[in-house]
Amino acid sequence: MIATRLRAAALHLVLVVGALISLFPFYWTAVMATNTTKEMYQVPPRVTFGPALFENIGRLLSSIDFFGSMLNTLIVASCTTALVLFFDSIAAFAFAKYEFPGRRIMFGLLLLTYMLPMQLALIPQFVIMAELGWVGTLNALIVPAAANAFGIFWLRQYIKGAVPDDVLAAARIDGAGFFRQYWHVGLPAIRPGLAFLGITTFIAAWNDYTWPLIVMVDPSNLTLQVALSQLNTVHNLDYSLVLTGALLAVLPLAVVFVLFARGFIRDAMKGALRG
């Protein structure tokens, strides 16, 4: 009994230390955002909150179009997440539960595209956007990201274990077609998987920097990460300003994570209890 309690206490101690180490960068960002750059260079450095937060926010808003770029990023991340959840789930449902000619070859090619570096597609993708006249518009950020190989692979593996074949067979006997089976049988069973994919997709779209930097040529129509990069100048780097922008940029991600993670944990626990 004593040995069991000691192991449990040691495990909790390791978890607490790991959580504190993971949270420390966010705490340090918040501390630096409430101080000035001069105070950051003090020895020893300040580890408590300062009074300069609202001053830094004011300077940030006067330096870049923060809320305009945040709105653009919110539109891109929300639309991308919604499209990925729909297209990836319906494709994964077909790959997991339906037999059709060339299924294995198509899935193998899909995995091959996932293994290729993203940088290889930048130039062809830009040429396509230019031909469509989408360079500098939000369409160039949303449409190319509407589906991805990782999401299809992840949901295919999830659907294979979460959606019983007997239930689908019963739905077919009742006259349900593909979309009805997908909507009424498949989606309710894979909500935890969709929640996980939604979190990762939204965060990836929110933090994307390389592709928006290339395709968003209009300085007045930037995403948040590209706009924040304009705070970095060659001759003067105001760390308090940069970290204030980073702090405000990460707050929506924290809200999304809390909302999706709660549903993910709740649905996962329901599935465990049913199992």
UniProtKB/TrEMBL annotation:
Gene3D superfamilies per record: MetI-like
Transmembrane region(s): 70-95, 107-128, 134-155, 189-206, 239-265
InterPro entries: MetI-like (IPR000515), MetI-like_sf (IPR035906)
Keyword Cell membrane: yes
GO terms (BP aspect): transmembrane transport
Domain ABC transmembrane type-1, chain residue ranges per copy: 70-260
UniProt protein name: Carbohydrate ABC transporter membrane protein 2 (CUT1 family)
The keyword Cell membrane is annotated on this UniProt entry: yes
Membrane topology: Multi-pass membrane protein
Cellular compartment(s): Cell membrane
